[in-house]
Amino acid sequence: MCAAFSPLMALNPKTDNVRQATEQGVQHLFFVCEIYKTQISRGRFFLHEHPKAATSWGLWMIKEVLAMEGVVTVDCDQCAFGLWCTNGVGEALVKKPTKWMTNAKAIAVRLDRKCLNEKSEEKHRHCDLLKLDKKGMRVIERYPVALANAVSKGQRVELAQKGELATLEAGSHVDEPDVWQTHPEYYESIYDANSGTKLDAG
Ligand SMILES: [Zn+2]
């Protein structure tokens, strides 16, 4: 749904298809924002994500949720969580600047990670998304494992703080297969988050 709010989409001619995609995107946002308000009013949590540059951040329904007590936004670069892809010039980390909106502060603080290039002398290369094919675009639509773990950990902390979850009630169970067994492709290539250098996955 976020494609309808891409800055690139704004450059497209306003054809019927573009208008329809935008309309559907706005309707979807209206729907999810109503759910966020219900979650907040019942003392529950929500987490919303769109690209940092998406035009949807300026829409009234998003601003209404943002104005509610306890709602915060946080920006992250997904290369800091190990998102990578392959294009014509090889493998590289993907910056994919992303903005999150949530009322779960324990999740927000864990998502607050920026590209290490901003502070490090050693720079890693970013994948040029404009050169990605459809398959490559699908790969970078998946959240990296470290990012999904950050959300899960934050959620567990929030629920434990509210007394709705004991420390041992969330997390991997011994009867569940490990992630490396269910998604071995995540472990085929591991990269140094700072330099982008491919590491020995073994
Ligand atoms: Zn980076």
Query: If you average the pLDDT, what whole number results?
Result: 84
Distance between the termini: 37 Å
- From the alpha carbons, calculate the radius of gyration and give it in angstroms: 19 Å
- Number of E strands: 7
Which class best fits the helix and strand makeup? alpha+beta
Describe the structure.
This protein has 202 residues and is an alpha+beta fold. The chain has two domains: 2-165, no CATH class; 166-202, no CATH class. 37% of the residues lie in helices and 14% in strands. The chain has seven helices and seven strands. It has helices spanning 7-11, 16-41, 60-66, 105-111, 134-141, 145-161, 179-182; strands at residues 47-51, 72-77, 84-87, 90-93, 97-102, 190-191, 198-199. Strands 1-5-2 form a three-stranded antiparallel sheet, covered by helices on one side. Strands 3-4 form a two-stranded antiparallel sheet. A hairpin with a 2-residue loop joins strand 3 (84-87) and strand 4 (90-93). Helix 4 runs antiparallel to helix 6 (145-161). The longest helix is centred in the N-terminal third of the chain and has 26 residues, at 16-41. The structure holds zinc ion (ZN). Zinc ion (ZN) is lined by residues 77, 79, 93, 95, 115, 117, 124, 126.
Which helices and strands appear, and what pairs or packs with what?
Elements: H1 7-11, H2 16-41, E1 47-51, H3 60-66, E2 72-77, E3 84-87, E4 90-93, E5 97-102, H4 105-111, H5 134-141, H6 145-161, H7 179-182, E6 190-191, E7 198-199
Bound molecules: zinc ion.
